[in-house]
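Propose amino acids for all 335 sites.
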């Protein structure tokens, strides 16, 4: 049995910084209001005058991860691309990654699990590596939220939260049983699907229907979030996913050297940190700078934590996410 190990990390965020005060040009809000509810101070939004798209940002992050892994890009034999905001309705963004990186005609799989996308993708990579099917898998989380947000007072509950960016990891085969992914744990609860969703355009609400109705009050084509409902479920499911991993690996919270939570809301992360009695040195948050970048949030935060020397060889690292679907899960690694 092979072990799957992260051998390279990289991230990319757009240069355009949008502060909480900047948002006041579109909506009735304040820096204090946003920070109190989310912990966010600023986020990155794509400048429409640049080349950046979901796939382009993914490629920029991937190039850094591949270089750091020490392998040639042609050694990548599979792509896992997690996003809720692909460049186009179809095809998915994974094939764009293959093309833009100039990779051989390898397989590319899109993972549409939103905030849990990177965790799900890492679990898939783990299985492919362990069975011996692939040797080096490129796992990317990338999001372009800014173009689809309702920039008005009506939409502020969602708009102030989200940012753009991408993170990437090279997951490689290893015969060292002391390092790599220890276990992954995935869950879903579709009964709450509409509590955090984007209803249309979709096959259930096509563009012609939306245009024909021409309803100025129609918000179906903007993201919707039942904030308090999502928060209450998130703190429970985050905790369950972490506890499940601890039990599966005969660990306690004291064994966690670094928790990288999905950057959904700083208040959620702080709740989980307090529940497991983790110190500030055991948890890494960067939502203050980037907002919620959905599938990209964990790889961006993981890369930053590693770059800053907060993750060292032999550390037990936990990735945990909760989001739309509802979906949630965790990944336990020995670095």
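Proposal:
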């Amino acid at each position: 049995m092979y072990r799957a190990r992260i051998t390279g990390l990289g991230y990319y965020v757009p240069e355009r910084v949008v502060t909480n005060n900047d948002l006041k040009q579109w909506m009735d809000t304040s820096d204090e209001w946003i920070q109190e509810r989310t912990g966010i101070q600023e986020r990155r939004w794509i400048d429409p005058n640049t080349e950046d798209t979901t796939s382009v940002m993914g490629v920029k992050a991937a190039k850094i991860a591949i270089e750091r892994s020490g392998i040639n890009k042609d050694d990548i034999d599979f792509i896992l691309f997690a996003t809720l905001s692909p460049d186009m309705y179809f095809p998915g963004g994974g094939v764009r990654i293959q093309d833009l990186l100039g990779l051989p005609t390898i397989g590319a799989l899109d993972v549409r699990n939103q905030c849990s996308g990177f965790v799900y993708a890492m679990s898939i990579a783990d299985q492919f590596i362990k069975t011996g099917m692939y040797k080096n898998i490129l796992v990317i989380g990338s999001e372009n939220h800014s173009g689809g947000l309702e920039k008005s007072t009506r939409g502020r509950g969602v708009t102030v939260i989200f940012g753009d960016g991408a993170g990437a990891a090279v997951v490689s085969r290893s015969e060292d049983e002391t390092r790599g992914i220890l276990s992954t744990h995935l869950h879903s609860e579709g009964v709450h699907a509409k509590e955090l969703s984007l209803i249309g355009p979709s096959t259930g609400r096509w563009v012609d229907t939306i245009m024909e109705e021409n309803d100025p009050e129609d918000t179906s084509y903007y993201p919707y979030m039942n904030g308090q409902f999502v928060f209450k479920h998130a703190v429970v499911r985050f905790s369950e996913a972490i506890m499940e991993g601890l039990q599966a690996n005969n660990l306690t919270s004291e064994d966690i050297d670094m928790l990288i939570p999905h950057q959904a809301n700083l208040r959620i992360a702080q709740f989980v940190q307090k529940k497991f009695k983790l110190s500030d040195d055991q948890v890494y948050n960067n939502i203050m700078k980037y907002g919620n970048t959905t599938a990209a949030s964990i790889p961006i935060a993981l890369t930053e934590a590693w770059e800053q020397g907060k993750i060292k060889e032999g550390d037990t690292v936990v990735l945990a996410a909760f989001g739309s679907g509802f979906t949630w899960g965790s990944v336990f690694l020995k670095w």
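The mean pLDDT is 95. The chain has two domains: 3-177, 181-334.
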